[in-house]
Amino acid sequence: MAKAPRAIPDAPARANRALSFDQRMATALFALLAVLPAASHAAAGGYLLLLGERAMIFAIAALSLELLIGAGGLVSFGHAAFVGVGAYAAGIAASHGHGDVMTALPAALAASALLALATGAIAVRTQGVYFIMITLAFGQMAYFIATSLAPYGGDDGLSWPTRSLVLGTRILKNETVFFYLCLALLIASYLGISRLVASRFGRVLRGLMDNATRMEAIGFAPYRYRLTAYVIAGAIGGLAGFLLGNQAEFVSPAYMHWQRSGELIMMVLLGGTGTRYGPMFGALAFLVLEETLSRVTVNWKIMLGPLLVATVLYAKGGIAGAIDAWRQRPQPPVAAVARRRPTRVLAAAGRGLLASAGRLAGRWRSRFRFAGPRTVAAAWGAVKIACGCRLARLAPLAGRGTRIAGARRWWR
Q1: 99 by DSSP, 3-state: which?
Q2: Coil/strand/helix, residue 166
Q3: DSSP E strands: which ranges in 185-277?
Q4: pTM here?
Q5: What is the pLDDT of residue 63?
Q6: Which residues pair with 251 in a beta bridge?
Q7: Structural domains of the chain ordered from first start
Q8: pLDDT value at position 284?
Q9: Highest mean pLDDT range out of 28-32, 304-308, 312-316, 341-345?
Q10: How would you label 60-76 residue by residue, b for 16+ Cβ within 10 Å and e otherwise?
C-alpha cells in the first residue's frame, strides 16, 4: 500500500515556528532600531539618533547584568564599574596614541574581564545580601581609584582625542555608521547571551540558582560556573563602556558610581528578568522616561522614582511580564472558534443550526402528525426564520472574533 505524501511546510512557516516569542520580540525591536536613522533625519534631526545610540549601549550593559540576575541569581550592585573600566581603558589607550579600534576594543574587554576575575574570585563565594554589599564595595573602590587618576583627568574625567579609528580612518565620526555599529554589537550580544543561557552552561547556572546544594551533590562546582558567568558579564559590560566612551568622546568616574549600577538594575527590573528582550525594552523605556521627564521639571527623579516603584509592585515581571500576562489571558469562546476563516465559521454554524432545525422539525412532525400539511409547513417556516435570525446574529460576532484571534496569533 503506497504511503500518502507527507505535507512539507514552506520555509517561512518553519522559520516562524523555530523562533521563540523572546526572539520575535527582539527581532521586532531590532527592526525598529534599524529604521530609526531614516526617521531621525526626517523628523528631529540627530536627536533621535543620539538617543537610540545611548539606549542600545545601555541595553548591552543591561543584557550583561541580566546574565547574572536572570540566569545566575546574582544581583550585582557594582556592575557599572565594568562599564567605566572599559571606557577608561579605551580612553587611556587613545590618549597614548593607540586609538585604533583593533587596539582599544581588546584593551577595554581585557581590562573589564580582569577586574571581574579579580573581584569575582571573592564576591561569588557569597550569596544574597552579602554578594550585593561586596560588589557595591568593589564598585566604589573602582570609582575612587578613577577619581585619583590625576594624569587622566581625575574627578573631572578624561576627554578622548577622537573616536576610535577604523583602519586609520575616522569613519565612526559619522553618527549613522556609529549607530549601526552599536546595533550590530547589540545583536551580537543578544545572540551570544541567548546561546549561552540555552547551553549546558546556562542550564547549570539556572540549576544553581534554584538549588545549589543539589547541583553540587550531582557533581557541579558552583564557584567555577558563577565565576565564569561573572567574568563574561564583566567583559560585555566593558564592551558597553567602550561604546559609551566613543559616543560621548569622554569618560568620567561617574560612570562607575553606585547610582549608575542602580540604574542598570532598574533597567533590568523594568524590562523583566528571565528574558533577553526584557532588559533591552527596559533600557529603552528608562531612557525615554528620563528624557521626557527632564523636559518637564529639573527634579525629574522625584517623578521617575514612583513610576519605577509602581511598575515593580504592580507589573510583576516588568514589561515582559505584562506582555506575557496579556498573551496568556483566557480567550473568548467566539475568538477561539474564529481562528478559521469567517466563511468556514458561518458555514459550520449554518450546518449546525440546520441540523438542529431538522431534528426539531422531526419532533414537530411527530407531534402534529394528525395536523394538516398547512400546519406542518407553517411550523417548518417558523423554524427556518429562527435559524436565519440566529445565523445573522452570529456573523458580526464571528468577524470580531477573527480580528481578535488574528491579533493574538501575531503576539504568540
Answers
A1: coil
A2: strand
A3: 250-251
A4: 0.76
A5: 94
A6: 158
A7: 21-327 (1.10.3470), 333-411 (no CATH)
A8: 93
A9: 28-32
A10: bbbbbbbbbbbbbbbbb
